[in-house]
Amino acid sequence: MTMARLATMVTALVVSALAHTGARAADVNAGKGVFTRCAACHTVNKGGVNGLGPNLFDIVGRKAGSQPDFGYSDAMKKARFAWTPQKLDAYIAHPAAVVPGNRMAFAGIPNAKDRADLIAYLATLK
Length: 126
Prior knowledge:
Blueprint: H1 3-21, H2 28-34, H3 74-77, H4 85-93, H5 95-98, H6 112-123
Helix pairs in contact: 1-6, 2-6, 4-6
């Protein structure tokens, strides 16, 4: 399966999940705007350097704690899941609840639409 096809499928899953909750469809451009909240610590360019947080290029579908050359917390290293849209949604909403003991000093994004838009944007980064 090509990366473009995978990105399309992930975006479709996010949109489908939103449709089932009665929310509006995810907006990739709005998600790029939401990402500005993350940009102080994360980069998203292919082959980009890690910042205070890992580079998030190709994050959707990637195993948690697996970005090369990033010093993850023990909690994140021990996480045994992939960053599915659902897992990203839960983590972005409340990081400490999904991976207790992680080092990300961010309270989360409470707005479900903002999270869906952000995940749709991240899904395009392949």
